[in-house]
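$ run holo --ligand "FE(4)-NI(1)-S(5) cluster" --emit tokens
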Amino acid sequence: MADFEEKSICEATIEVLKKDAGEHSTAFSRADSLKECTIGASGICCKNCAMGPCRLTPPKKEGDPEKRGICGATPEVVAARNFVRMIVGGSAAHSDHGRAVAHTMILAAKGEAEGYQIKDRIKLLEVAADLGIEVGDRPVEEIALDVGEKCMSMFGQQEGELEFGHRAPEKRQEIWRKLGIFPRGIDRECVEAMHRTSIGVDQDMENLLLQGSRCALADGWGGSMIGTELQDIMFGTPTPLKAKINLGVLEEDQVNIIVHGHEPLLSEMILLAAQSEEMIKKAEAKGAKGINIAGICCTANEILSRHGIPIAGNVLQQEVAILTGAIDAMVVDVQCVYQAIGELATCFHTKIITTSSKGKMPLAEHVEFHEETGLSTAKKIVEMAIDNFPNRGKVDIPKVTSEFTAGYDHEYINYMLGGKFRASYRPLNDGVIDGRIRGVVGVVGCSNPRVRGGGNHVRVVQELVANGCLVVMTGCAAQEVAKTGLMTPEIAYKEGVMPQGLREICEAVGIPPVLHAGSCVDNSRILVALTAMAKEGGLGDDISDLPAVGCAPEWMSEKAIAIGQYFVASGAAVVFGANWPTTGSQKLSDYLSEGIFDLYGNAWHWEEDPEKMVGKILSLIDTKREALGISAKRERVLYDMAMRRELEI
Ligand code: NFS
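-- output --
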């Protein structure tokens, strides 16, 4: 394997890989040895029927005829179908997660889900109001049941408009209506997109992409939003907290349980079980000093944001964590779980425990998790980890951790800017208008071993901050940047990190310039925050007017494409790194990067080079600033607390 520093920028990851010296296969070594298929990667391989696969490679020289599939499909239609199917895959993953959360809330409201409760009553009432559910002085459980059932009905809804879509700015809703893409039901949009992309149905590139948008919107304003909102109601809406990240959070003398995957339904119960005296005593009886829970992937972001549980690492560290020899159990549910961990774990004492009927794998033990018996199952799993503690061989944990803050959701941003009685986005909008904040950038998505894991995230975010952008992050991208200090409020006091204007805002509000907003389904929080900015006034009246950009420098999952598409269809410009899945069709690529601008007021962009990516993002921001008439930089005196107090409420 090539130089380990070439593979990752994470100190702990490099240390572990160096010590392993290539003895075990990892995503890094496999990325080295497995060459990607360039035809598939560029989107022009059609395998939607058995006459193919039809590989529509571009003409070798000018004048050669363009290839067609056996059915006659053109490269742009093949690439569009593949692209839309990626959107469906991603939307289905997020939305099935949302469905599980709605199901659990219904059970919790009926008192049939062991260990679950309604923690955030205020959020419950807010969501109920948005869904048109009567609140009055009804018991919380009754309201929660109605909210759960209403959300569940959104999956199978056949007609009408998805209720959460009405949270979007009026102008955006009108655009969706005009284009005929206001999502109806979540499942319906996924099914229709699959139908239209099968052989011989929708053979119009632009029409296919309209359904792609409708499906993605059903994810962002549907499945993902249901996931986020109902999780907040059941487990609490996050507020800022301090936490630690990286493999150094593993404890040599404690039982280490990694929760990995996506749905906090499981990890919340594991946490509850591990904190019980009964389990702690059992661990002590086996010679351990306690039970240490740490997260990987988005499950990590979920329990971090609500409980401050440390993060062991992101998607690229799931195998590296096992290589430390310190993991007694890695408990997984769904999504982003590498099949390779099953085989790798056989070289160590680590138990891989699958828990979802939707996600089994060879060489793992399966303990099926059902919400009705959540806590008892969680106890059983924790016990398995405890029993495995004495089986450890050599343990070598890198002593690398970083501190950061997390838990910056829409509700908190609103509160921290305006205070409890005047919660508002006004100060943020004012900061953008007067140029102290150049723009707002959401940097999200995966870490990818093909692009020096984590490297692009950090370079992009550092430079955006240096150019005065406020950055909001989710997913594995957030976990990578959490290791740099950019998510600590103290960074605002450091010279040379950010311009004076952004620094003043960070100092006054007590926030870092990079805000950790949670997991990938929590990108729906960014939709809500952008909407709040648009509605606050002074920056146009739609998301497409805002100097705001979404970006995924190292994406790899279909889920990232679904997120990107719902951002574009909601009016935000989106810039992706790594590779771009439609490059095999110039026609489709031009349509996505230019053609759709006329529909949505923004479009897709892609750029592999992180420096050029930042240039692209800044120019997109500056174009919007110019259109708003706020391009001239106008410094002004910052209102401090004393001045604010003098303001009339
Ligand atoms: Ni998002 Fe979260 Fe990570 Fe990528 Fe996977 S964990 S849902 S898909 S790899 S950011």
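-- notes --
Residues 262, 297-298, 315, 335-336, 445-446, 475-476, 519-520, 557, 559 surround FE(4)-NI(1)-S(5) cluster (CB under 6 Å).
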